[in-house]
Amino acid sequence: MQVEIVQQKKALLDAVDSMDAELRELALKIHRNPEVSFHEHKAMNWLTEPLENAGFTVEKGIANLETSFRATWEGEHGGPTIALIAEYDALAGLGHGCGHNIIGTSAVGAALALKDAIPNLKGKIVVLGTPAEEVGGGKILMVEEGIFNHVDVAMICHPHKSTMVLRGGLACVDAAFKYYGKATHAAASPEKGISALDAVINTFVAVNSLRQFFNDDVRIHGIITKGGEATNVVPAYCEAEFLLRAETVEQLEIVREKVYRAARSSAEAVGAKIEIEEGLVYAERNNNKALAFLFKDNLELLGEEVCEPPKKGGIGSSDIGNVGQMTATIHPYIKITDTANTHTPEFVEAACSEKGMAGLNKAAKALAMTTYDVCTNDGYLQAIRSEFEEWKRNKQQ
Does the predicted TM-score (pTM) go above 0.90? Predict the structure, then answer.
């Protein structure tokens, strides 16, 4: 049996290597044509084309999202359903500074390798194209539409400057604050005006005064997106955007209540009115350890050094957290650079570099081998599902 496992995993590795040139071309083409959230039409079509050609059943525009897709292949009936998650949106004004060109392509590469190398695999492989991770929460919308209801295991592999399998993620929500004052001549009749800008500035001051009373993991970022039209006119309308993060959704609710109260009070203090428009809530990450350790073993088989995640700080947020509330999920990282942080011009370069393409190759191989492990070993699958069900019971208490 062990010999057969070794042979089949080698077949998977060979399958990925045999399509390495095509996978590189696909990742680089997406990199050269960055598309922001909900506009990833080219990337969606490019990612689904090789899956269609390989015989996957492809559905585009699922969950009422134009740039989403689901590509399905089932080997031998009766096995688990494994979702390999593809991301492919870019950052506005920056491009692929988070390496989603690699994420989407590695999911496709793993799926193609599984079908090619092990056509009688007992299980259903689903490549899920999930748009708008950066802004918009595409996976949250897909969760709400039931796309993950019958998925046993979900996996994604993200490029980074370290290889890790258990890095966490904060819950978060974005909010737009819209302030309404009254315009007047700033010199001739200032007493007749109500400054929406003062309400904005007061909000930033009030939020800063709250920081010492939050837990260390809380993060609050804000920018002024509209601050007035002219210096000699009291601004009648201004806007600010904030992103709030906390360790869990429950703790995020406390942060939201305090920040929103500070914003409302800041507007009221100058006589302005305020509207708050809130985005979708990204849940904290729920890493399935049994699944993560399988992925770690396969990364080490590939010669990859797996690092421990930071004990404190150093984490962001992703809508993969909402998937992890629905099924057993992991979000490991593959190293493609020694120094560059994500969301920087340097990481844009890393995402199309030789190291980036080598990381793509390893990510596809690790995803394929871990999928193979789950589909062929009932003990692994039981451990993964038992851990998730126990987490769910504890969450509901």
Answer: yes
